[in-house]
Write a structure and sequence with these properties.
Distance between the termini: 73 Å
Oligomer: single chain
Protein name: NPCBM-associated, NEW3 domain of alpha-galactosidase
Largest sheet: 6 strands, mixed
């Protein structure tokens, strides 16, 4: 919102005839536009080393008359680093705009109600500090995976998940989504509560197709949890490495393939 106010005028001399009075009154009306912001451009920046990145370029806001709001709000896309510590961070909003610095009436004719006018414009910059609060939250990474599967066989894979965030995660569930040639009939493991810095192990039965090529596979894993406010939150997709190992004589002897 443009909160600019015109407090008054100070005359430098007294008009002496009807044309000068007409010119003075007209000039006062034009001078009142000094508080209008013309061609406003808004830009957003952050401190060096901030975990916040401004993705948007400067925004053209248009002109804003005194006492009015911009027709459309300035919108900026920002990205907060996933490892950002909880706390308040500064955003710096810079507003640059033109304004009418002066207006001068010449050739005023009070009878014909005509005049010539000259305008002078200046550039103004204003800065505001905005605060953005990054809340504590849980975050997760897979720190270890154990279990070996053979082509055509099934085995229990243990996926160790660590809460690397700053907030407790409650009612935690690990949702497993393997893709061909791996599959599971048990795609969810209940892990209860994981405190910051603590780990929990999800145990999932994984089956490998008989045509599976022996190598390391990545299993998509999403952590579903409840934060202290009672909101349900889903983590980013994590990759759990699982090895499909070439069958040896022991597996062949017992017909495991």
């Amino acid at each position: 919102m443009n909160k600019g106010k015109l407090l008054g005028f100070k005359n430098d001399r007294t008009p002496y005839d009807s044309d000068e009075i007409y010119a003075a009154r007209t000039e006062m009306k034009l001078e009142s536009s000094i508080v209008d912001a013309i061609s406003v451009v808004a830009s957003l920046s952050v401190d060096p080393g901030s975990p916040i990145e401004v993705k948007s370029v400067s925004q053209q806001i248009g002109s804003i008359k005194s006492g009015e709001n911009a027709l459309t709000p300035a919108k900026f896309d920002i990205k907060i680093d996933k490892n950002a510590k909880a706390g308040e961070y500064n955003l710096y909003l810079n507003l640059s705009y033109d304004y009418q610095k002066n207006a001068q009436i010449t050739n005023a004719d009070s009878v014909a109600q005509t005049y010539d006018v000259n305008h002078w414009y200046g550039i103004m910059n204003q800065n505001q500090i905005l605060k953005i609060k990054v809340k504590n939250q849980a975050d997760f990474e897979i720190v270890n995976t154990t279990g070996i599967i053979y082509p055509g066989g099934e085995g229990v894979v243990q996926i160790e998940i660590k809460n690397t965030g700053e907030e407790e995660a409650r009612n935690v569930k690990a949702i497993i989504n393997p893709s061909d040639p791996l599959s599971t009939t048990d795609s969810m493991a209940f892990l209860s509560t994981i405190a910051p810095g603590s780990t929990a192990v999800a145990k999932i039965k994984i089956k490998a197709d008989s045509a599976a090529v022996p190598k390391m596979y990545g299993i998509d894993t999403v952590v579903r949890y409840e934060n202290p406010d009672g909101d349900i939150v889903y983590s980013d997709t994590l990759q759990a490495p699982v090895e499909v190992k070439e069958s040896g004589l022991f597996q062949r002897f017992f017909g495991w393939i």
